[in-house]
Amino acid sequence: MSIMMIKLFIEKKKEEVLGGVSKTKKNINKTDHGVDILEGLSATGLRSVRYCKEIPGVRSVMANDIEESAVESIINNIEFNEVGDLCTPNHGDASMVMMQHSRDDQSRFDVVDIDPYGSASIFLDSAVQSVDNGGLLCVTCTDLSVLCSHAHPEQCYAKYGALPLQSKSCHEMGLRILLGSIQSHAIRYKRVIEPLVSVYVDYYIRVFVRVRDSPLLTKKAYSNIGHVFQCNGCKSHYTHPLGEIEPRGKNGMKCKTSNGPPVSNVCEFCGSNHKIGGPIWINSMHNQEWLDRAISHLNEEGATEAYATHKRMLGILTVAKEELPDVPLFYSLASLTSTVKLQPIKMKIFQSALMNAGYRVSLSHCQANSIKTDAPNGFLWDILRNWHKQYPAKLEKMSDGNPGKIILLQEPVIDVDFSIREDAHKKSTVARFLQIPGGGPGTRATGKRKRNVSNSTPNKLRKIDIGQGSNQENKDDQNIEASENMNAGN
Protein backbone atom coordinates (compact mmCIF):
# COMPACT_ATOMS: atom_id res chain seq x y z
CA MET A 1 0.00 0.00 0.00
CA SER A 2 2.92 2.36 0.66
CA ILE A 3 4.01 2.15 -2.97
CA MET A 4 0.57 3.26 -4.12
CA MET A 5 0.27 6.02 -1.51
CA ILE A 6 3.57 7.60 -2.49
CA LYS A 7 2.60 7.42 -6.17
CA LEU A 8 -0.64 9.24 -5.42
CA PHE A 9 1.22 11.77 -3.28
CA ILE A 10 3.59 12.62 -6.12
CA GLU A 11 0.64 13.09 -8.49
CA LYS A 12 -1.12 15.30 -5.95
CA LYS A 13 1.97 17.46 -5.41
CA LYS A 14 2.28 18.05 -9.13
CA GLU A 15 -1.39 19.06 -9.33
CA GLU A 16 -0.95 21.49 -6.43
CA VAL A 17 2.06 23.14 -8.05
CA LEU A 18 0.32 23.47 -11.42
CA GLY A 19 -2.83 24.74 -9.70
CA GLY A 20 -0.93 27.35 -7.70
CA VAL A 21 -1.58 25.75 -4.31
CA SER A 22 2.13 25.22 -3.63
CA LYS A 23 3.71 28.49 -4.67
CA THR A 24 7.12 28.31 -3.02
CA LYS A 25 10.15 27.94 -5.22
CA LYS A 26 11.32 24.98 -3.16
CA ASN A 27 8.14 22.98 -3.81
CA ILE A 28 8.22 23.73 -7.52
CA ASN A 29 11.83 22.64 -7.82
CA LYS A 30 11.24 19.46 -5.85
CA THR A 31 8.22 18.54 -7.93
CA ASP A 32 10.13 19.12 -11.17
CA HIS A 33 13.06 17.00 -10.07
CA GLY A 34 11.31 14.37 -8.01
CA VAL A 35 10.72 13.69 -4.35
CA ASP A 36 13.14 12.84 -1.56
CA ILE A 37 12.25 9.85 0.65
CA LEU A 38 13.64 8.74 4.00
CA GLU A 39 13.18 5.21 5.26
CA GLY A 40 14.30 5.68 8.84
CA LEU A 41 14.51 2.04 9.88
CA SER A 42 15.46 0.29 6.67
CA ALA A 43 16.81 -3.06 7.99
CA THR A 44 17.72 -4.89 4.75
CA GLY A 45 16.87 -1.96 2.49
CA LEU A 46 14.40 -3.95 0.39
CA ARG A 47 11.61 -1.41 0.75
CA SER A 48 13.92 1.44 -0.28
CA VAL A 49 14.97 -0.60 -3.31
CA ARG A 50 11.32 -1.05 -4.21
CA TYR A 51 10.68 2.67 -3.86
CA CYS A 52 13.49 3.32 -6.36
CA LYS A 53 12.42 0.70 -8.88
CA GLU A 54 8.62 0.97 -8.71
CA ILE A 55 7.76 4.64 -8.11
CA PRO A 56 8.20 7.14 -10.97
CA GLY A 57 9.29 10.60 -9.90
CA VAL A 58 11.66 9.63 -7.07
CA ARG A 59 14.74 11.82 -6.86
CA SER A 60 16.46 10.15 -3.91
CA VAL A 61 15.88 7.58 -1.20
CA MET A 62 17.90 7.47 2.01
CA ALA A 63 17.93 3.97 3.52
CA ASN A 64 18.98 4.40 7.13
CA ASP A 65 19.59 1.95 9.94
CA ILE A 66 21.42 2.08 13.25
CA GLU A 67 22.81 -1.46 13.00
CA GLU A 68 26.11 -1.79 11.17
CA SER A 69 25.25 -5.27 9.89
CA ALA A 70 21.96 -3.95 8.53
CA VAL A 71 23.75 -1.16 6.67
CA GLU A 72 26.04 -3.76 5.07
CA SER A 73 22.94 -5.60 3.82
CA ILE A 74 21.51 -2.32 2.55
CA ILE A 75 24.69 -1.56 0.61
CA ASN A 76 24.78 -5.04 -0.91
CA ASN A 77 21.10 -4.95 -1.89
CA ILE A 78 21.48 -1.51 -3.46
CA GLU A 79 24.42 -2.71 -5.54
CA PHE A 80 22.76 -6.00 -6.43
CA ASN A 81 19.57 -4.25 -7.61
CA GLU A 82 21.51 -1.48 -9.40
CA VAL A 83 19.77 1.49 -7.78
CA GLY A 84 22.86 3.25 -6.49
CA ASP A 85 22.02 6.36 -8.50
CA LEU A 86 18.84 6.88 -6.46
CA CYS A 87 19.29 5.07 -3.14
CA THR A 88 21.83 6.13 -0.53
CA PRO A 89 22.68 3.93 2.49
CA ASN A 90 23.13 5.69 5.81
CA HIS A 91 24.38 4.44 9.17
CA GLY A 92 22.82 6.42 11.99
CA ASP A 93 20.16 6.82 14.61
CA ALA A 94 16.85 7.54 12.88
CA SER A 95 15.89 10.31 15.30
CA MET A 96 19.23 12.06 14.86
CA VAL A 97 19.09 11.73 11.08
CA MET A 98 15.63 13.31 11.01
CA MET A 99 16.68 16.11 13.37
CA GLN A 100 19.64 16.92 11.12
CA HIS A 101 17.17 17.44 8.28
CA SER A 102 14.56 19.34 10.28
CA ARG A 103 15.80 22.94 10.43
CA ASP A 104 16.72 23.62 6.83
CA ASP A 105 13.67 23.68 4.54
CA GLN A 106 15.77 22.60 1.59
CA SER A 107 16.99 19.46 3.37
CA ARG A 108 13.61 18.24 4.61
CA PHE A 109 12.19 15.07 3.09
CA ASP A 110 9.04 14.95 0.99
CA VAL A 111 8.22 11.50 2.38
CA VAL A 112 9.26 10.06 5.74
CA ASP A 113 8.56 6.37 6.38
CA ILE A 114 8.82 5.11 9.96
CA ASP A 115 8.19 1.38 10.34
CA PRO A 116 9.77 -0.10 13.47
CA TYR A 117 9.26 -3.47 15.08
CA GLY A 118 7.14 -2.28 17.99
CA SER A 119 6.34 1.31 18.88
CA ALA A 120 7.08 4.33 16.71
CA SER A 121 6.56 6.74 19.63
CA ILE A 122 10.23 7.69 20.12
CA PHE A 123 10.51 8.75 16.46
CA LEU A 124 7.38 10.89 16.16
CA ASP A 125 8.80 14.20 17.42
CA SER A 126 11.73 14.21 14.99
CA ALA A 127 9.57 12.78 12.18
CA VAL A 128 7.04 15.65 12.20
CA GLN A 129 9.94 18.12 12.00
CA SER A 130 11.87 16.44 9.19
CA VAL A 131 8.99 16.12 6.71
CA ASP A 132 8.52 19.00 4.28
CA ASN A 133 5.54 21.37 4.42
CA GLY A 134 2.72 19.39 2.81
CA GLY A 135 4.86 16.25 2.89
CA LEU A 136 3.77 12.68 3.54
CA LEU A 137 4.46 10.94 6.84
CA CYS A 138 3.96 7.15 6.96
CA VAL A 139 3.96 5.57 10.42
CA THR A 140 3.53 1.94 11.48
CA CYS A 141 3.08 0.54 14.99
CA THR A 142 3.02 -3.15 15.86
CA ASP A 143 2.73 -2.80 19.66
CA LEU A 144 -1.01 -3.45 19.64
CA SER A 145 -0.86 -5.02 23.11
CA VAL A 146 -0.08 -1.49 24.32
CA LEU A 147 -2.22 0.58 21.95
CA CYS A 148 -5.29 -1.64 21.91
CA SER A 149 -5.39 -3.31 25.31
CA HIS A 150 -6.34 -2.15 28.79
CA ALA A 151 -3.67 -4.44 30.27
CA HIS A 152 -0.85 -1.86 29.99
CA PRO A 153 -2.36 1.62 30.44
CA GLU A 154 0.83 2.96 32.01
CA GLN A 155 2.88 1.94 28.97
CA CYS A 156 0.40 3.45 26.52
CA TYR A 157 0.42 6.72 28.44
CA ALA A 158 4.23 6.74 28.61
CA LYS A 159 4.56 6.18 24.86
CA TYR A 160 1.54 7.95 23.37
CA GLY A 161 0.15 10.15 26.14
CA ALA A 162 -3.23 8.38 26.12
CA LEU A 163 -5.12 5.55 27.80
CA PRO A 164 -6.77 2.72 25.81
CA LEU A 165 -10.05 1.05 26.73
CA GLN A 166 -11.15 -2.56 26.45
CA SER A 167 -13.78 -2.72 23.72
CA LYS A 168 -14.53 -4.28 20.35
CA SER A 169 -13.40 -1.06 18.68
CA CYS A 170 -9.98 -1.22 20.36
CA HIS A 171 -8.08 -1.32 17.05
CA GLU A 172 -9.78 1.82 15.79
CA MET A 173 -9.06 3.42 19.14
CA GLY A 174 -5.41 2.43 18.69
CA LEU A 175 -5.38 4.20 15.34
CA ARG A 176 -6.92 7.29 16.91
CA ILE A 177 -4.44 7.25 19.80
CA LEU A 178 -1.58 7.18 17.28
CA LEU A 179 -3.08 10.03 15.23
CA GLY A 180 -3.63 12.07 18.37
CA SER A 181 -0.04 11.47 19.43
CA ILE A 182 1.33 12.57 16.06
CA GLN A 183 -0.82 15.70 16.22
CA SER A 184 0.39 16.50 19.74
CA HIS A 185 3.99 16.46 18.50
CA ALA A 186 3.23 18.48 15.36
CA ILE A 187 1.45 21.40 17.06
CA ARG A 188 4.57 22.14 19.13
CA TYR A 189 6.13 23.36 15.90
CA LYS A 190 3.00 25.13 14.57
CA ARG A 191 2.24 22.21 12.28
CA VAL A 192 -0.94 20.18 11.83
CA ILE A 193 -1.69 16.79 10.36
CA GLU A 194 -4.25 15.74 7.76
CA PRO A 195 -4.95 11.99 7.90
CA LEU A 196 -5.21 10.53 4.41
CA VAL A 197 -5.63 6.82 5.13
CA SER A 198 -5.47 5.07 8.52
CA VAL A 199 -5.79 1.30 8.58
CA TYR A 200 -5.60 -1.65 10.92
CA VAL A 201 -4.27 -4.73 9.11
CA ASP A 202 -3.65 -8.14 10.67
CA TYR A 203 -1.20 -7.37 13.47
CA TYR A 204 -0.24 -3.72 12.92
CA ILE A 205 -1.67 -0.28 12.30
CA ARG A 206 -0.41 2.11 9.65
CA VAL A 207 -1.30 5.74 9.05
CA PHE A 208 -0.55 8.06 6.14
CA VAL A 209 -0.80 11.74 7.05
CA ARG A 210 0.23 15.01 5.44
CA VAL A 211 2.01 17.50 7.66
CA ARG A 212 1.43 21.21 7.03
CA ASP A 213 2.71 24.49 8.48
CA SER A 214 -0.30 26.46 9.73
CA PRO A 215 -0.27 28.64 12.87
CA LEU A 216 -4.01 29.26 12.41
CA LEU A 217 -4.99 25.59 12.18
CA THR A 218 -2.69 24.89 15.13
CA LYS A 219 -5.04 26.95 17.29
CA LYS A 220 -7.96 24.79 16.18
CA ALA A 221 -6.12 21.48 16.52
CA TYR A 222 -7.28 20.75 20.06
CA SER A 223 -10.90 20.56 18.87
CA ASN A 224 -9.95 17.41 16.91
CA ILE A 225 -8.91 15.67 20.13
CA GLY A 226 -11.23 14.26 22.77
CA HIS A 227 -11.77 11.77 25.57
CA VAL A 228 -13.83 8.58 25.52
CA PHE A 229 -16.26 7.66 28.29
CA GLN A 230 -17.25 3.99 28.33
CA CYS A 231 -19.65 2.13 30.60
CA ASN A 232 -18.12 -0.80 32.48
CA GLY A 233 -21.32 -2.81 32.13
CA CYS A 234 -23.05 -2.40 28.78
CA LYS A 235 -20.00 -0.80 27.06
CA SER A 236 -21.96 2.23 25.83
CA HIS A 237 -19.42 4.85 24.79
CA TYR A 238 -19.34 8.61 24.29
CA THR A 239 -16.69 10.91 22.87
CA HIS A 240 -16.15 14.41 24.22
CA PRO A 241 -13.90 17.02 22.54
CA LEU A 242 -11.29 18.88 24.52
CA GLY A 243 -12.54 22.20 23.16
CA GLU A 244 -14.79 24.03 20.76
CA ILE A 245 -14.24 26.72 18.16
CA GLU A 246 -16.80 29.52 18.15
CA PRO A 247 -16.85 31.78 15.04
CA ARG A 248 -16.56 35.49 15.76
CA GLY A 249 -17.24 38.09 13.09
CA LYS A 250 -16.13 37.58 9.53
CA ASN A 251 -12.84 35.76 10.06
CA GLY A 252 -12.50 35.70 13.84
CA MET A 253 -12.90 32.83 16.25
CA LYS A 254 -13.04 32.12 19.95
CA CYS A 255 -11.31 29.02 21.32
CA LYS A 256 -13.22 27.55 24.22
CA THR A 257 -12.92 24.54 26.48
CA SER A 258 -15.78 22.06 26.49
CA ASN A 259 -18.38 21.71 29.18
CA GLY A 260 -18.73 18.21 30.54
CA PRO A 261 -18.57 15.41 31.16
CA PRO A 262 -21.24 14.04 28.76
CA VAL A 263 -22.24 11.31 31.23
CA SER A 264 -23.48 11.19 34.82
CA ASN A 265 -21.85 9.27 37.67
CA VAL A 266 -23.47 6.01 36.54
CA CYS A 267 -24.65 4.69 33.17
CA GLU A 268 -28.22 5.74 32.36
CA PHE A 269 -28.93 2.32 30.82
CA CYS A 270 -27.46 -0.22 33.26
CA GLY A 271 -26.30 1.77 36.31
CA SER A 272 -22.61 0.83 36.01
CA ASN A 273 -19.65 3.19 36.41
CA HIS A 274 -17.70 4.70 33.53
CA LYS A 275 -14.06 4.44 32.50
CA ILE A 276 -12.25 7.34 30.83
CA GLY A 277 -9.91 6.76 27.88
CA GLY A 278 -7.90 8.92 25.53
CA PRO A 279 -7.28 11.57 24.52
CA ILE A 280 -7.74 10.34 20.96
CA TRP A 281 -8.22 11.80 17.49
CA ILE A 282 -12.00 12.23 17.07
CA ASN A 283 -12.08 13.71 13.57
CA SER A 284 -12.08 11.68 10.35
CA MET A 285 -9.28 9.11 9.99
CA HIS A 286 -9.43 9.22 6.19
CA ASN A 287 -9.49 11.80 3.44
CA GLN A 288 -12.46 10.94 1.20
CA GLU A 289 -10.89 12.45 -1.91
CA TRP A 290 -7.74 10.44 -1.29
CA LEU A 291 -9.71 7.23 -0.90
CA ASP A 292 -11.45 7.94 -4.20
CA ARG A 293 -8.06 8.42 -5.85
CA ALA A 294 -6.71 5.20 -4.38
CA ILE A 295 -9.73 3.11 -5.38
CA SER A 296 -9.70 4.61 -8.86
CA HIS A 297 -5.99 3.84 -9.13
CA LEU A 298 -6.58 0.21 -8.13
CA ASN A 299 -9.33 -0.10 -10.75
CA GLU A 300 -7.04 1.05 -13.55
CA GLU A 301 -5.85 -1.36 -16.19
CA GLY A 302 -2.75 -3.23 -15.07
CA ALA A 303 -3.25 -2.56 -11.34
CA THR A 304 -4.05 -6.20 -10.61
CA GLU A 305 -0.71 -7.29 -12.04
CA ALA A 306 1.17 -4.38 -10.45
CA TYR A 307 0.04 -5.07 -6.88
CA ALA A 308 0.23 -8.63 -5.60
CA THR A 309 -2.06 -7.68 -2.68
CA HIS A 310 -4.48 -5.89 -5.00
CA LYS A 311 -7.65 -7.61 -3.76
CA ARG A 312 -6.82 -6.98 -0.13
CA MET A 313 -5.92 -3.32 -0.69
CA LEU A 314 -9.10 -2.71 -2.68
CA GLY A 315 -11.19 -4.40 0.00
CA ILE A 316 -9.74 -2.40 2.90
CA LEU A 317 -9.97 0.93 1.08
CA THR A 318 -13.51 0.23 -0.09
CA VAL A 319 -14.73 -0.36 3.46
CA ALA A 320 -12.76 2.67 4.67
CA LYS A 321 -14.52 4.74 2.01
CA GLU A 322 -17.91 3.51 3.26
CA GLU A 323 -17.15 4.36 6.89
CA LEU A 324 -19.00 7.30 8.43
CA PRO A 325 -16.24 9.92 8.59
CA ASP A 326 -17.69 11.89 11.52
CA VAL A 327 -18.43 8.97 13.86
CA PRO A 328 -15.53 7.86 16.08
CA LEU A 329 -15.45 4.21 17.19
CA PHE A 330 -18.09 1.53 16.65
CA TYR A 331 -20.02 -1.31 18.27
CA SER A 332 -19.93 -5.01 17.50
CA LEU A 333 -23.37 -6.40 16.65
CA ALA A 334 -22.47 -9.71 18.28
CA SER A 335 -21.32 -7.91 21.42
CA LEU A 336 -24.55 -5.89 21.64
CA THR A 337 -26.77 -8.96 21.43
CA SER A 338 -24.47 -10.86 23.80
CA THR A 339 -24.81 -8.12 26.42
CA VAL A 340 -28.58 -8.65 26.61
CA LYS A 341 -28.40 -12.42 25.94
CA LEU A 342 -30.56 -12.20 22.82
CA GLN A 343 -30.36 -14.46 19.81
CA PRO A 344 -28.28 -12.93 17.02
CA ILE A 345 -29.80 -10.35 14.68
CA LYS A 346 -28.86 -10.28 11.03
CA MET A 347 -26.81 -7.26 10.05
CA LYS A 348 -29.30 -6.31 7.34
CA ILE A 349 -32.16 -6.22 9.87
CA PHE A 350 -30.21 -4.14 12.38
CA GLN A 351 -29.03 -1.66 9.76
CA SER A 352 -32.57 -1.41 8.37
CA ALA A 353 -33.90 -0.54 11.83
CA LEU A 354 -31.37 2.27 12.12
CA MET A 355 -32.00 3.61 8.62
CA ASN A 356 -35.79 3.44 9.00
CA ALA A 357 -35.42 5.77 11.97
CA GLY A 358 -33.42 8.26 9.90
CA TYR A 359 -29.94 7.44 11.18
CA ARG A 360 -26.82 6.68 9.19
CA VAL A 361 -24.92 3.43 9.58
CA SER A 362 -21.84 1.75 8.11
CA LEU A 363 -19.28 -0.95 8.79
CA SER A 364 -15.73 -0.39 9.98
CA HIS A 365 -12.71 -1.76 8.15
CA CYS A 366 -11.43 -2.95 11.55
CA GLN A 367 -14.17 -5.56 12.01
CA ALA A 368 -16.65 -7.28 9.71
CA ASN A 369 -19.52 -7.43 12.24
CA SER A 370 -19.31 -3.75 13.19
CA ILE A 371 -21.93 -1.03 13.66
CA LYS A 372 -20.73 2.55 13.14
CA THR A 373 -23.71 4.89 13.46
CA ASP A 374 -24.74 8.39 14.45
CA ALA A 375 -27.73 7.02 16.37
CA PRO A 376 -27.70 7.71 20.13
CA ASN A 377 -26.88 4.81 22.43
CA GLY A 378 -30.43 4.82 23.74
CA PHE A 379 -31.84 3.96 20.33
CA LEU A 380 -29.46 1.00 19.96
CA TRP A 381 -30.81 -0.46 23.17
CA ASP A 382 -34.37 0.34 22.03
CA ILE A 383 -33.76 -1.84 18.97
CA LEU A 384 -32.76 -4.70 21.23
CA ARG A 385 -35.70 -4.13 23.59
CA ASN A 386 -38.09 -4.30 20.65
CA TRP A 387 -36.32 -7.42 19.38
CA HIS A 388 -36.68 -8.89 22.85
CA LYS A 389 -40.46 -8.53 22.56
CA GLN A 390 -40.43 -10.63 19.40
CA TYR A 391 -37.75 -13.11 20.47
CA PRO A 392 -37.62 -12.99 24.29
CA ALA A 393 -34.40 -13.52 26.17
CA LYS A 394 -34.39 -15.84 29.19
CA LEU A 395 -34.40 -13.17 31.89
CA GLU A 396 -34.88 -15.74 34.63
CA LYS A 397 -31.38 -17.07 33.93
CA MET A 398 -29.79 -13.64 34.41
CA SER A 399 -28.72 -12.30 37.79
CA ASP A 400 -30.50 -9.23 39.14
CA GLY A 401 -27.47 -6.99 38.65
CA ASN A 402 -26.76 -8.15 35.10
CA PRO A 403 -26.46 -5.09 32.78
CA GLY A 404 -28.40 -6.87 30.03
CA LYS A 405 -31.28 -7.71 32.32
CA ILE A 406 -31.46 -4.14 33.63
CA ILE A 407 -31.61 -2.85 30.04
CA LEU A 408 -34.32 -5.29 28.89
CA LEU A 409 -36.54 -4.64 31.90
CA GLN A 410 -36.90 -1.01 30.77
CA GLU A 411 -39.67 -0.24 28.31
CA PRO A 412 -38.51 0.94 24.85
CA VAL A 413 -38.90 4.65 24.27
CA ILE A 414 -39.38 4.23 20.52
CA ASP A 415 -41.18 1.55 18.53
CA VAL A 416 -38.64 0.27 16.04
CA ASP A 417 -39.46 -0.48 12.40
CA PHE A 418 -37.68 -3.67 11.34
CA SER A 419 -38.80 -3.46 7.71
CA ILE A 420 -36.00 -4.67 5.45
CA ARG A 421 -34.42 -2.01 3.26
CA GLU A 422 -32.73 -2.81 -0.01
CA ASP A 423 -30.02 -0.22 0.63
CA ALA A 424 -29.11 -1.73 4.02
CA HIS A 425 -25.95 -3.86 4.19
CA LYS A 426 -25.74 -4.18 0.43
CA LYS A 427 -23.64 -6.94 -1.01
CA SER A 428 -20.42 -5.78 -2.59
CA THR A 429 -18.59 -7.08 -5.62
CA VAL A 430 -15.36 -6.40 -3.71
CA ALA A 431 -14.10 -8.89 -1.13
CA ARG A 432 -13.90 -6.51 1.81
CA PHE A 433 -12.51 -8.62 4.66
CA LEU A 434 -9.76 -10.92 3.44
CA GLN A 435 -7.60 -12.76 5.97
CA ILE A 436 -3.83 -12.69 6.03
CA PRO A 437 -2.26 -15.53 4.01
CA GLY A 438 -0.83 -18.14 6.34
CA GLY A 439 -2.66 -16.96 9.43
CA GLY A 440 -0.27 -14.23 10.58
CA PRO A 441 1.58 -13.94 13.91
CA GLY A 442 0.45 -16.30 16.63
CA THR A 443 -0.40 -19.08 14.19
CA ARG A 444 0.45 -22.44 15.69
CA ALA A 445 3.53 -24.02 14.13
CA THR A 446 3.08 -27.44 12.52
CA GLY A 447 6.53 -28.65 13.41
CA LYS A 448 9.84 -27.69 14.94
CA ARG A 449 12.26 -25.73 12.86
CA LYS A 450 15.99 -25.84 13.49
CA ARG A 451 18.50 -23.33 12.30
CA ASN A 452 22.14 -24.15 11.81
CA VAL A 453 23.72 -20.91 12.94
CA SER A 454 27.23 -22.01 12.15
CA ASN A 455 26.40 -22.56 8.48
CA SER A 456 24.34 -19.39 8.02
CA THR A 457 25.82 -16.88 5.63
CA PRO A 458 25.18 -13.19 6.39
CA ASN A 459 24.38 -10.47 3.91
CA LYS A 460 23.08 -12.66 1.10
CA LEU A 461 21.11 -10.76 -1.44
CA ARG A 462 17.59 -10.50 -2.74
CA LYS A 463 16.75 -9.36 -6.23
CA ILE A 464 13.69 -7.14 -6.70
CA ASP A 465 12.08 -7.83 -10.07
CA ILE A 466 9.27 -5.50 -11.11
CA GLY A 467 6.08 -7.34 -12.01
CA GLN A 468 7.16 -10.65 -10.45
CA GLY A 469 5.58 -10.44 -7.01
CA SER A 470 7.68 -7.46 -5.95
CA ASN A 471 4.64 -5.49 -4.85
CA GLN A 472 3.88 -7.52 -1.75
CA GLU A 473 2.47 -5.61 1.20
CA ASN A 474 5.25 -3.71 2.94
CA LYS A 475 5.09 -5.92 5.99
CA ASP A 476 5.77 -8.98 3.86
CA ASP A 477 9.05 -7.43 2.71
CA GLN A 478 10.22 -6.78 6.23
CA ASN A 479 9.36 -10.28 7.36
CA ILE A 480 11.48 -11.78 4.58
CA GLU A 481 15.12 -11.45 5.54
CA ALA A 482 17.55 -10.40 2.85
CA SER A 483 19.27 -13.73 3.31
CA GLU A 484 17.51 -15.44 0.43
CA ASN A 485 20.15 -16.89 -1.86
CA MET A 486 19.34 -15.46 -5.26
CA ASN A 487 22.65 -15.24 -7.04
CA ALA A 488 22.77 -13.93 -10.54
CA GLY A 489 23.50 -17.39 -11.93
CA ASN A 490 20.46 -19.07 -10.31
Q: What is the compact description of this entry?
A:
This protein is 34% helix and 21% strand. The protein is of the alpha/beta class and 490 residues long.
Give structural attributes:
490 residues; alpha/beta; seven-stranded mixed sheet; three-stranded antiparallel sheet; 21% strand; globular
Structure description:
This protein has 490 residues and is of the alpha/beta class. It is 34% helix and 21% strand. It contains 18 helices and 15 strands. The strands form 4 sheets. Strands 3-2-1-4-5-7-6 form a 7-stranded mixed sheet, sandwiched between helices. It has a 3-stranded antiparallel sheet with strand order 9-8-12. Helix 1 (2-18) crosses helix 2, helix 5 packs parallel to helix 6 (124-130) and helix 6 (124-130) crosses helix 9.
List the helices and strands and how they pair.
Blueprint: H1 2-18, H2 25-33, E1 35-39, H3 46-54, E2 58-65, H4 68-80, E3 87-91, H5 94-100, E4 109-114, H6 124-130, E5 131-141, H7 144-147, H8 153-160, H9 170-186, E6 191-201, E7 204-213, H10 215-220, E8 225-231, E9 237-241, E10 243-248, E11 252-257, E12 274-281, H11 288-298, H12 303-306, H13 310-322, E13 331-332, H14 333-339, H15 347-356, E14 361-364, E15 367-373, H16 377-390, H17 403-408, H18 474-479
Parallel strand pairs: 1-2, 1-4, 2-3, 4-5
Antiparallel strand pairs: 5-7, 6-7, 8-9, 8-12, 10-11, 13-15, 14-15
Helix pairs in contact: 1-2, 5-6, 6-9, 11-13
